[in-house]
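Good morning,

Both structures are done.
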Amino acid sequence: MKLLKRLIVQPPLIYRALFPEAVWRVRILGRKTAYLTFDDGPVPEATPRILEILEKYGVSATFFMVGDNVRRYPALFEAVKSAGHRVGNHTMHHLRGRKTSFRRYLRDVTEANEFVASDMFRPPHGLLSFRQARLIQKHYNMIMYDVVTRDYARYITPEEVVDNVRRYARNGSIIVFHDSEKSAETTVSALPAAIEWLLENGFELRVLPSA
């Protein structure tokens, strides 16, 4: 069970090798850096509270947004951008690539980009077929992750989320949180302590760089 948890929190090299052109970790010489990212929003239950926390600590992040949520909450979308954060495409309806036909999945990505308008894409659940990935990467920078906090997990505590950051964050880590209704309370409770630990340990927290 501990090994399985570790493989979820920090994807193994064998899984990263399946999508070698995707960005799993950002290696930049110089100051130690990490990249906070938030998936599945924007939603009123989570996104405004996360923006307040990020503003409090003066750090920037990248939000991978579901197109249908942007359609429903355009003011939240604008608030994220106005605060200096970057946005990325997370499909229109949060589809699992391997459970969705090739044409439908690509159509969903394209539709989402009409609302999100980004050159970055992250597949929901980190899952898509090789064929889907090949075509998507012709049009987008595919951003994966180095640390999954598991803030979405039903029985995880905020303390365990923070512990995942402490254990696995390293220079260049792309760290996944969520700004979803399901994860809102856990994420909002854990995020301040996670940010404080990262800053105290010399990390600069930035938006993901352009390709």
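Second structure follows.
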Amino acid sequence: MERLQKIIANYGYCSRRKAEQLILDGKVTVNGTLVNELGTKVNSNDIIEIEGKMLNKDTDKEYYLLNKPRGVISSIKDEKNRKTVVDLIDTDKRIYPIGRLDYDTTGLILLTNDGTLTNLLTHPSHKVPKGYLAKLNGILDKQAIDALKEGPVVEGRRTQIIDFKIKKKDLTKNATYVLITIVEGRNHIVKKLFKTLGYDVDKLTRVSYDFLGLGNLKSGEYRPLTIKEVKKLYNK
């Protein structure tokens, strides 16, 4: 017996958080009975229906690495009918993104229908390192650099910065390019930490996720993960 939301996520329908919301919204039935309380336990033989459709328990797992363009939503669907990361992947499987990138943030994002891997990578205890290239409005001064070494306090918590490097200072355009690696999962954390130091982020690109990089992928392009890469992600 396992919790209903975990079963739904493990079979690749959506993330566990989304599954919890579907249950609370009264969109899930088990053996014909509505279930709207979290913590309900079911087994693999129970008939689970979500929004009137039976949960497919025979779905093969798929894993993709996408170079997300600017102006694309990190979601399965968008209520404003804007393009989503799922729209860019040619598959008939019900995949979803692992985590999020802001609407105006570009770069590396993973998509899958593997709920177990999603939960593993998004759980705070695993502290997956994520690298970003940030273009700042202004020239980073010594005080800000020292603060980065300490880890700026954002919303009452010190940010967990693994490493950072100043890639370029453009005096003509009054801009600084900083490569920063963090293990944070808080919303807008890169923008917020630089804002704390007095700098706006004009452009932000995620360039790495754990050991994975963008390689030669152009904006909007994607590739499947290899079996070796998937196994390595599992060995967190």
